[in-house]
């Protein structure tokens, strides 16, 4: 079971890892057998090591983005958030994340949906 405080800690850790691109901080977010789903029809990234590798291959540079979020729903071991990512001098994105937590607080499953903010929203 998760709650808002646990979700906030996980999102804070995600942002720390996003800023640092430190493999240990990234890995600490995900269960050893965690799954990261990025887009429709794409194969899931399965396993902590594969998730870290995927993250680092597409990493953002520190200070290149700003992120604001709020919870939409928390039920049992699953949380849903809505967010906005603003990239300096690049496209901005609206995000929906669905995170299913393992008993130890790591993400057993992480699914993200995103769409470009075309400025009309």
TrEMBL record:
<feature type="domain" description="SnoaL-like">
    <location>
        <begin position="14"/>
        <end position="119"/>
    </location>
</feature>
<dbReference type="Pfam" id="PF12680">
    <property type="entry name" value="SnoaL_2"/>
</dbReference>
<protein>
    <recommendedName>
        <fullName>SnoaL-like domain-containing protein</fullName>
    </recommendedName>
</protein>
<dbReference type="InterPro" id="IPR037401">
    <property type="entry name" value="SnoaL-like"/>
</dbReference>
<dbReference type="InterPro" id="IPR032710">
    <property type="entry name" value="NTF2-like_dom_sf"/>
</dbReference>
